[in-house]
Design brief:
CATH class of the domain at 2-87 and 117-168 and 505-513: Alpha Beta
Shape: globular
Strand content: 5-15%
Oligomer: single chain
CATH architecture of the domain at 2-87 and 117-168 and 505-513: 3-Layer(aba) Sandwich
Strand order of the largest sheet: 3-2-1-4-6-7
Helix content: 40-55%
Number of helices: 21
Largest sheet: 6 strands, parallel
CATH superfamily of the domain at 2-87 and 117-168 and 505-513: NAD(P)-binding Rossmann-like Domain
Length: 521
Amino acid sequence: MIKVAVIGAGSIGFTRGIVRDLLCVPEFRDSIEFAFTDISARNLAMVYRLCRRDMEANGVRSTLKATTNRREALKGAKYVFCVVRVGGLEAFQHDVDIPLRYGVDQCVGDTLCVGGIMYAQRTIPVLLEFCRDIREVGAPDAMLISHVNPMAMNTWACNKYGGIPMVGLCHGVQHGHAMIAEVLGRLHGDKEIRPQDPNYLFTSAVGINHQTWFVEILYKGRRIRSGELLEAFEKHPHIRQTEKVRIDMLRRFGYFSTESNGHLSEYVPWYRKRPNDIPRWIDLSCWINGETGGYLRVCREGRNWFQTDFPNWLKGEPERYAPERRGAEHGSYIIEALETGRAYRGHFNVVNRGCVANLPTDAIVEVPGYVDRFGLRIPIHGELPLGCAAVCNASISVQRLAVEAAVHGDDALLRQAAMMDPLTGAVCDPPEIWQMIDEMLVAEARWLPQYAAAIRAARRRLAKGPRIPVREGYKGAARVREKTVVEMARHAEEARKMIEAENRATAGASASVSRGRKGKR
């Protein structure tokens, strides 16, 4: 039996998908011991019941246990998936709302910008404790597989300070690949668009997580240049409206970015710095196109709806473990390759070590790699185009400062990270950033024990004043009202499908990790 542990298993979308994807592999149907752990006994029990029912319906002999004792779940585990959200949606609310008072309008706030920086401060110390537990009770060759944002910062900290191998996984490349297939197929009048067929479309993306660039595109064996790709995007009737930021970046830098319109808009200084300009670049048909606080809204709606609708999930059809039902997340394919020797190509977040020549060697890059029985292999990819590298290097400077701040509890580095952030620096001056960080340290104090002294000083400064005026009650340039459970119930099936889809991007929003004064969970 191979033991696979899931930390933050109360996250329904990821956890159920991990189990399904692994048990779609014939060799694994009867040979995996799953161990779920979460600090929320209620969420853990709900996900356990669903996955247990799925396993029984498929007649597999793999086993499943659930416990709130993390070390018990990790004992002997060879592979550990991490899908937690430290601080849950309460801390996430601060990540979005406090910067908004200073004019920093985020769509997601989990990767860069002030929200992503603060998310890293809460998450990195917890992940390092996970690493310690895995070192002490996990299998000798244990691997940590993380879906947790901010992906680059977390992976950087764990590989530098955690003492175990960790790979960060994201599905942005797969989504961008599918979008390229759609626009090129439509441009050329294809009756069938086959994004999964490498003879139809083959891509290679290089960069950093959420700022990875499609540097090579082969469409039916023919190399696609930037002009043709730009034409394909500009002529697509729907995507040209929903992906204006990504299309503009393609127009100006010559390469298409993997990440969604809403994500990308908050990583650079140009598209969200003036409230009146934001509506020019976003579309409100879906949160991920750039809605203010859009990810927070759908996470809150998803949590409330799942808790209300859970009995109907149990009444629904169980997951079917069959090859055609297997998802595109990399994790199960990595384990399959390591255990069976069947080679797999994917895009992984790893330490650079010279793989991308014009990005720092200590940074975390997202690049193509190969996995087989002998491990994860990362080819040398050379240099990124200069403009693409410049965009990535601006973010890497923020990441490095934020990682060291989180590990050492250094609020000077934390404030410098916020100053260097492209969007924050475009909107705020240094005194505003200093006060904003004071507010965030105080608001999120329970999850930031490494900043105890800095938080006491921040409280004194805020109490003493005078304070810089802020935009009290400001809701942002593109806010959408959160739906109530009653409203969602009117369209229950649509809501259920939305939650299934959105939860795959939530990475543990329903499975928060709460940090006590003694660091217990």
